[in-house]
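Recall the central idea of this unit: under ordinary conditions, the amino acid sequence of a chain determines the structure it adopts. In this exercise we apply that idea directly, starting from the sequence alone.
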Amino acid sequence: MATSVKNNFLNHALASKLQQALIRRKDSVQEQHQSKAKEPTKASSKPVVLVTNGEGIDSPGLTFLVEALLRDALLDVHVCAPQSDRSLCGHSVTTGETLAVCSTQVGGANAFEVSGTPADCVSLALSGALFSWSKPVLVISGVNKGATCGYDTLYSGAVAGAREAMICGVPSLCISLNWEKNVSCESDLKDAVAVCLPLIQAAISDIQKGIFPKNCFLNIGIPSCPLTNKGVKVTRQSPNRASLNWQAVSTNRNPSAGHYMSNQQSLGIMLAKLGRDASAAAAARRLNSNRKNVEIESIGVAGKFSSQQSIKKYFRMELTEKRQENKEDDLDSRALEEGYVTVTPLSVYENGDMEIQSSVSSWLAIGVSGDQ
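Accordingly, the structure predicted from this sequence is:
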C-alpha cells in the first residue's frame, strides 16, 4: 500500500519534504523486516539446565524433578542420564569401550540415555556432542533415593555427576532423599522436589548474578519426611560411611552366580569371534580347556593347587548402614536425621574448606530469605 500525505493545509515545499520522509521510513521498515527474516532463529533465552542422576533414566525421582523444572516454562531443561542403575559406581568413567547413546523423552524434556556412568553422562553432555547449547547454567544430579552423607559420597554415582560438572567448570547440585526402606514411597520424592525447588531457583538466580559459591558443588540432603523439615542448614561432611560386607557364596546356594559367569564367558567368546583380539581369546580358550576349575568356600582351607587347577570363588557385597554418634550438630548425617534439609559444600580441593563454608553460609542466608 502506497504511503501518501494530503497537502490541503500544507505548502507545497513542506508537503514534499514530509512525503519524502514517510517514504524513507517505509523503506527503512521494509529493510528491517527483510533483515529479520534472514536472521537465523535465536536460541531460547531461558536458562539452560542439565539434569542427570545415579539411578538410571527411568527412575521416578528424575522424572518428578524434570516435570517440576518445566512446570513454569522458565527453564530450558535437558537430560542425560545412565541407561541403568549406577548408584554405587563412584566417579568411574568409561575408557576403551564404546558407549551407546539413545535419544528419548523424560518428563517432557529432550533426553539421552547413555550406557555409561553418571560422570560419563555429564562429561559427554558438556562436550557439545549431544546438545546444541554450548554450556548450561546449572547441572543437577537427582533426585536420588538414599542419603549421600559422609564418606558415602565417594561411592555415589549421583555425587560424581555433580562433581564432574564442577570439574568441567559448571555449577552443580546433587539432591538426595533420605529414603527409608519399607517406609518411604514415591510421593516422598515429589515432596522432596517441592522442597528443593527454592534452592534450585536461588542457585540459578545467583549464578546469573555471579555470586554463587565458587570452587565447590552443593550436596543437598532432603529428610525422609520432606514437608515437615525443620529448615535448611549448612553442614559439614561427616566421617560416617556404610559398612561393606563381603559374603562368600557358592553356586549351590546361589545358582544365578554360576549362570551369570557362564553367560559372561559365552559373551566374551562371541565378542572375540567378532574380531576383538580373536587370537588372544583363542589362546585363552586353549589354556582354560586344560584347567580344572575348583570351587571352594575358603582359600584358607583349600590347600595347594596344581598349576592345572584354578580357584573359583563367588562373593556378594551387602551394604550395612553404620551409625556413629557425632557430637557436632553441623555434620550432614546428624542434621539430616534430625529433620533438616542439609546443604553440604563439597570440593576436590584439599584446602580452603573454611572459606567455602563461609561463602555458602552467606549465600544461603541471602538466597533463602529472598532479601537480595
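The chain has a mean pLDDT of 79.
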